[in-house]
Write a structure and sequence with these properties.
Elements (H helix, E strand, L loop, with lengths): L14 E2 L2 E2 L6 E6 L6 H20 L7 E7 L3 E4 L5 E4 L1 E2 L7 E6 L5 H4 L3 H12 L1 E7 L2 H7 L7 E2 L6 H7 L4 E2 L5 E4 L2 E4 L4 H14 L1 H11 L24 H12 L7 H8 L3 H12 L3 H19 L4 H7 L5 H12 L3 H19 L1
Helix pairs in contact: 1-6, 1-7, 6-7, 9-10, 11-13
Length: 357
């Protein structure tokens, strides 16, 4: 990796007496694009920086904000995994000058990009002249391949954390984080977590008040509660291969308040409890009891988001024996209390209401 010298990267804005000093020009955000990248990994963070810049101009602040650039192997259209195309303003070889923040997206295309020597070399060289480098979702694999995550803490989409740790053992993977910042390198979890990370960078550059205003514009949390597990509880168990078991999965989610013990579920399948537990665990890689707990927590999430029912009522409606059992399950699976979860969604609804007025 090229050796970084003090003159090879743009210094961070100076602070004097707690006040941020505006840079002489806009901070240059360079976003990499490659075929079959996830389009939200690209556009989500860029929109955060664009709104921050617009708010600065509306308030006639001296800080010029951000300059956004999309780069790819060749200038011109780049097809994303959705089939839509984004237009890169310049090619990788034509990028010149200092970079404030390099962003690397993820998506299906990382499978090819991670073995593309030209792309990995470009990431390594550009990082050497950037103030900071960030990756969204599986973009962490590209940073890891470039050697930028060696000895650092990092995260990626919850489905890919085990692979990241296995393929790059020198990376200290933290699987239940929305984003991880280790020095000047940052990584984030799946898709919208890139916007969470971008908000954190805006807060660093421009302060918490402006970052909160950007979050309100986008109806986002400034700091999202919980970890990745909060958003994967109902998703990390696959559908069973046999139709009768898939139907049982649907029934469990539709009737969380029912008797969902092994004997009751085995009876619905016409199987012995022992055989049912063995088949269920083999097909879904999770025990029936753990699956039921996850389904009930998912149901409780919906109650907390959509109603003002008390915890006792929510617990009863979702099959938990008590509010305390609900609290323990929430804390274990989501790393956040039911009350904190509901408060976070209430704040989000308040932001929506204020935008609608």
């Amino acid at each position: 990796m090229p050796r970084r010298t003090p003159s090879s990267r743009r210094p961070a804005p100076r602070r004097t007496g707690g006040a941020r000093i505006a840079p002489r020009g806009p901070r240059r955000i360079v976003m990499l694009a490659f075929p079959d990248a996830q389009i939200l990994d690209v556009t989500g963070p860029l929109e955060v920086f664009a709104i921050a810049t617009r708010l600065l101009a509306e308030r006639e602040r001296r800080d010029p904000g951000y300059q956004l650039e999309l780069v790819a192997a060749s200038a011109g259209p780049v097809r994303m995994s959705s089939g839509l195309e984004l237009v890169a303003q310049r090619s990788l070889r034509d990028l010149r000058g200092p970079v404030d923040t390099l962003f690397v997206p993820g998506g299906e295309g990382t499978r090819r990009a991670v073995v593309d020597t030209a792309t990995i070399d470009w990431i390594r060289r550009t990082d050497a002249r950037a103030r900071r480098t960030s990756a969204v979702c599986s973009g962490a694999f590209l940073l890891a391949r470039a050697g930028l995550l060696d000895g650092r803490r990092a995260t990626t989409h919850w489905r890919n954390c085990d692979d990241l740790a296995r393929l790059f053992p020198r990376v200290r993977v933290e699987p239940d984080r929305i984003y991880v910042r280790d020095g000047r390198i940052a990584t984030s979890a799946g898709v919208t977590a890139g916007m969470d990370l971008a908000l954190a960078l805006v807060e660093d550059d421009l302060g918490g008040e402006l970052a909160r205003d950007v979050a309100r514009q986008l109806v986002l949390f400034l700091r999202r509660p919980g970890g990745q597990s909060q958003f994967s509880v109902a998703l990390d168990a696959p559908l069973a291969s046999r139709p009768s078991l898939r139907e049982l999965q649907s029934w469990i989610h539709e009737h969380p308040e029912a008797d969902l013990g092994v004997e009751a579920l085995a009876g619905k399948m016409g199987m012995s409890p022992r055989n049912f537990a063995r088949v269920f665990t083999r097909e879904l890689a999770v025990t029936p009891a753990r699956y039921v707990e996850r389904a009930r927590v998912e149901a409780a999430r919906q109650w907390l988001e959509d109603s003002r029912a008390g915890l006792d009522e929510v617990a009863a409606a979702c099959g938990f024996g008590s509010a305390e059992t609900l609290r323990r399950a929430f804390q274990r699976l989501l790393r956040v209390s039911p009350s904190a979860y509901r408060d976070a969604f209430a704040r989000a609804e308040g932001s929506r209401a204020s935008l609608a007025q």
